[in-house]
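S., here's the first fold you wanted:
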Amino acid sequence: MSQIYIDCNDIYLREYALEDLESLHALTWQPEIYEFLPGWNVSREQREVWFIRYEREENKSFIKAIADGGEIGDLRLRLAIIEKFSGEFIGWCCTGMKDELPTPEREVMYAISSRHRNKGYTTQAVKGIIQYLFQHTNIDSLIALALEHNTPSIRVIEKSGFTFENSIELEGETYRYYKLIK
């Protein structure tokens, strides 16, 4: 049974479950996802190792930190986006520290299946995780990044309340850098 359940109108967020592995792996191989997240489309074997040894385990640590008062430090949280109507795993919405920036900052990141785009699901998910983090943790700001040409992601970020700060370069790519303060 999921310990985190965030109701977001048409979808809900919950931590990863074992039955999500195949759907997660399949999503990482959609061209629309690995175009913007190139390191995510790894072999099935590698995905399973990350999923079981790191992603699910760190979710447990994050949930324990919430129960112990909300001091989450640099822990990551990875949540499944589940469509309520079908119960289908359609994407993910995560948060973690962005180590490539001078001052480590907590980022919100997400991806959704190509079949479920333009329905408002991603914006619902981002708003849901923001509300959860601000209510249940000690953090007071979040960032979001989008490649300059990733117009759909920029729209999600802006609809979710983030403010454009500037453009930055990471690993040879130009990103739009957004910030949201509690």
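And the second, which I think is the more interesting of the pair:
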Amino acid sequence: MIEAKNISKDYILKNKTIAAINDVTFSIRAGETVGLIGENGAGKSTLIKMLCGILTPSQGTCTVNGLIPYKKRKENAFNIGTLFGQRSQLWWDLPVLDTFEVIKIMYRIDKEKYSFMKNWVIENFELENVLNQPVRTLSLGQRMKAELAATLIHCPQILYLDEPTIGLDILVKHKIRDVLLKYQKLNNATLIITSHDLSDIKELCSRIIVLDNGKLLYDGSINQFEQKYGGKVNISFVCENNTAQLVQEVNNQFTLDNTIVNGQNVCFILPDKMKISELIGVIGNACSLDTLEIKNNSMEEIVKKIYESKD
């Protein structure tokens, strides 16, 4: 569905060449859901704009559904849906339903397909009560749901979503994620999503691509990413007596990354790939395990540590 081979994009700034994307190669199959993550300036939006045909690669090649996007922008546009954060594609003074009608004409959607998709997005995004309101009168949550509805109404096979839930409350976020997953299953659609809210990525995506200063840092499953870059386990519990003695015993027997003690609350931070069964045995001999909690580093913590390690 999507192929990028040694793709690069350079900009000239004050007679200096800046590589926004630097020799990136990947392929995405039809029906995959891929999260594209990285710091601000990592090249995420630039990469998406090349796949949309808005930007031309400086080097390398990319194809989307067999088309070279920047050479076949019009044909490519009929197969894709895009949402770029808070940049509206809706007509500000038109009612939402009128915007849908305009999109129907723009994308030459046949009557039967349009009727089905119009009803589908209205029902799933719960837009019944705002269809006749001008876009400018909508709340942020209502407008973002209407934006996504407008993105989906021509039934694109590929969705590029750049920060689709930015600034939204938790209920609207959950609604948008739920509808996107329904749409993906309904049409076997391919989703490429960028977001600084990594809960979006974890809930929507089976695979992630991590960019760092325009270069490909990681491409693979979320589970493998967490194993490769995370690995650390936190064991937290309450020690009702002899806390200092237990902590000393554990640190004498095991090499830990850190030990945090706050009164009777203890947290042992284990190094990569350390087996925890023996450590839990020592803890269990000294105190009740009813309060024991074992937690892996969150994805947010892993990404943060990766970028902090560059400083």
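Why I say that: The CA atoms of residues 177 and 204 lie 7 Å apart. The chain is about 40% helix and 25% strand.

Talk tomorrow,
H.
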